[in-house]
Amino acid sequence: MIPVEDAQQIVLAHTLVLPAVRVAFTEALDRVLAQTVYATENIPPFPASAVDGYAVVAADIEAVRWLVGEQMAGYVADFQVRPGTVARITTGAPLPSGADAVVMVEFTEERDGAVTIRRAVKAGDNVRPPGQDIARGEVVLPAGTLLSPAELGLLATVGQTEVQVYPAPRVAVMSTGNELVESGYLPGPGQIRDANRYSLMAAVRQAGALPIDLGIVRDRPGELEAQVRAGLEQADVLLTSGGVSMGELDLVKPLLERLGTVHFGRVNTKPGKPLTFATVGQKLAFALPGFPVSALVTFEIFVRPALLKLQGHTRLMRPVREVVLAHDVRHDPERTEFQRAIVVRQDNDYVASTTGFQGSGRLLSMVGANALLRLPSGQGNFAAGQRVQALIIGEVE
Ligand code: AMP
Ligand code: MG
């Protein structure tokens, strides 16, 4: 049995960033950039008016000036603005030759082609110089950037229509157990509905990866091996749940031992002690415990960081915050425990209440939880008012 931190380190040591792929930038939302993007042009590319108004010569001292033409956005007009003249101009239009400033329409008056300027004007007023937003040669987005809406807009702006990104890992998910039936069925005697495949596939998706549904697999060696092999073939990561306890039909770990290398098979954690981690070539295999809370909590602590690392993320762990316990908390000093809790901000503190009975089968203990209290081994029960570390897994109000 190994400590939680050691298990986390072993997983990450065997997790390599996936090879980058080239994708249309429109498909790159939530991907991590695997290349640096440079600007090959200035933005704006020409001196552009920042307002609607009149293009003028700033040094011009005439009180009334004559309109020589219109410069709208989208083309280049072929007149000159000279002292004694102005041109009507719209936001985003190129500054006509001869002009060096724009006066906002609010500070002007136009009558029969004669324009009065009611403001002092300096050269450059209301003109966005070329390269003001992005200069040619500048790094627009460094490698490692997470692509969000603003980043996609920038890629469009600089004309980078394809980018190198780290792909979403494919994650094959299966549930094991003779007792399991699909959620749409009425369980027969001794049967229960499969919860883990659905919670795990959703967690995979939230971690930015692509779930592949391998269905329910019976506790039969041949069937299990066929599906595990199929999963490892199609996916970068295999997630199974169930079949890793000490029972007779717990077949997953011996199978992984045969197919690849099992790096650990027991972790000193509650919930989730029988978590098993193996590699088969470059592929990762996590055999998660069957109890629904154990499966999701071990996903959170061990699988999610690996999925993030595969995608090129560098911040792999949830934020950790010190919280004050709202009530006494029972804790077994033998193991590191992750209790599901609701953390709220109160004055300058974060106050945590657990979600009630913390049984490994009680998925309701995860509903509404925005934190996992990390209760370290080597220490027994905690009293109300004591401070502990919490992994923040949701929004804190
Ligand atoms: P196991 O590790 O296979 O012995 O499973 C531990 C407990 O979790 C047993 O009570 C199983 O019935 C239950 N369990 C296993 N897999 C699932 C699943 N996919 N959905 C809901 N409960 C499960
Ligand atoms: Mg089982």
Quick take:
The chain is an alpha/beta fold and 397 residues long.
Structure description:
There is one protein chain. The chain is α/β, with parallel strands linked by helices. It contains six helices and 26 strands. A six-stranded mixed beta sheet has the order 7-4-6-5-9-8, with no helix packed on it. The longest helix has 19 residues. It is elongated. The two termini are 37 Å apart. 37% of the residues are buried.
In whole angstroms, the N-to-C terminal distance is 37 Å
Q: Let me know the average pLDDT.
A: 97
The Rg value, from CA coordinates, equals 31 Å
Uncertain runs are none
List bound small molecules.
adenosine monophosphate, magnesium ion
From the structure above, extract its key features:
397 residues; alpha/beta; six-stranded mixed β-sheet; 6 helices; 26 strands; 18% helix; binds adenosine monophosphate; binds magnesium ion
Topology diagram in text:
Layout: H1 4-13, E1 21-24, E2 37-38, E3 48-49, E4 53-56, E5 64-71, E6 85-89, E7 101-104, E8 108-111, E9 114-117, E10 127-128, E11 139-141, H2 149-157, E12 162-165, E13 170-176, E14 180-181, E15 192-193, H3 196-206, E16 210-217, H4 221-234, E17 237-241, H5 252-259, E18 261-264, E19 269-270, E20 276-280, E21 283-288, H6 292-310, E22 320-325, E23 336-346, E24 349-354, E25 371-375, E26 387-392
Parallel strand pairs: 5-6, 13-16, 13-17, 14-15, 17-21, 19-23, 22-24
Antiparallel strand pairs: 1-12, 2-11, 3-10, 4-6, 4-7, 5-9, 8-9, 18-20, 20-21, 22-26, 23-24, 23-25, 25-26
The chain binds adenosine monophosphate and magnesium ion (MG).
